[in-house]
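To fix ideas, we now present one chain and its tokenised fold:
***
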Amino acid sequence: MRHRRIADTGVELTGLGFGGSPLGNLYRKTSAADATDAIEAAWSAGVRYFDTAPHYGLGLSERRLGAALRHRPRAEYVVSSKVGRLLVPNEHPRGMDTEGFAVRDDLRREWDFSRDGVMRSIEATLERMGLDRLDVVYLHDPDDHWRQAAEEAMPALAELRDQGVVGAVGAGMNQSAMLARFLRETPTDVVMLAGRYSLLDQSALDDVLPAALELGKGVVAVGVFNSGLLSQDRPDQGMKYDYRIAPPALVDRARAIAEVCTAHGTTLPAAAIAFPYSHPSIINVTVGMRSAEQVARNVELHRRHVPDALWGELRARGLIRSDVPTDYGRERSSRCP
């Protein structure tokens, strides 16, 4: 796959990235064999960007990803993880984690965006993964911690970057406004934007995407299926949108988009993966994967042709915003193998 560089750094990402949250048993268990097979399938398909976090399965995702990559040449892949949630012993375990992962709760998460917390978190991640360095480190969901994240955590990450300990630094969130602040007010190189530039939500056009374009910074798009509603050819009632059951009106809108996709010879999931590349600041789309079968499907969707005329009709029908950029051909050619 083609690579695109995070501006002003030496870090390059493949157009499609491997999201590691399912390796941490997100919503349900993923077997160790399936996790390994998924990573091996991604590697065979040319994926070289792998994202994880301590939050994902209380360290399980990091351990599994590190073990599967350990025999690969370190210079040939890029790993990102996150800081902000320290894993500490749980003095009062109840048996199972309560934050969406099917794992035991022997550990618990503790919010910490202090300099010391950043250093401790990175050290623990490296130990869990068996690595000597991370290529990208993101602040993880600092929504309620702006001051400490901006004044303590980000300067600490920037110092590590300037020392060559990490390659690039940034923040990852489910909102776009604060990500724009990180780009404009802190030494951020790249942001991970979850769900705010998709076929159902283009709110990032109001803040973070213009900021990234103006400053020459990179954006990694995640959550492009909006928790599942855009993941099937024909959405149905009861599917999730942003981690909750989608409202009926939103399901109807997704169905209308799907009908236009069908008329143009493509599918809703293929369009969902292709859409973020419409904006020149987006350098990567990362998708969560838990099996070799899911990897094969997502790689095929990533490579599938999506005609330019689709976007024009979606705009004309008011199904996407009229100010979505139009230079799809250039962006699509940059992501194809």
Notes: Residues 3-335 form a domain with the TIM Barrel fold (CATH 3.20.20.100). The longest helix spans residues 146-162. The chain is about 35% helix and 20% strand. Residues 67 and 129 are 7 Å apart (CA to CA).
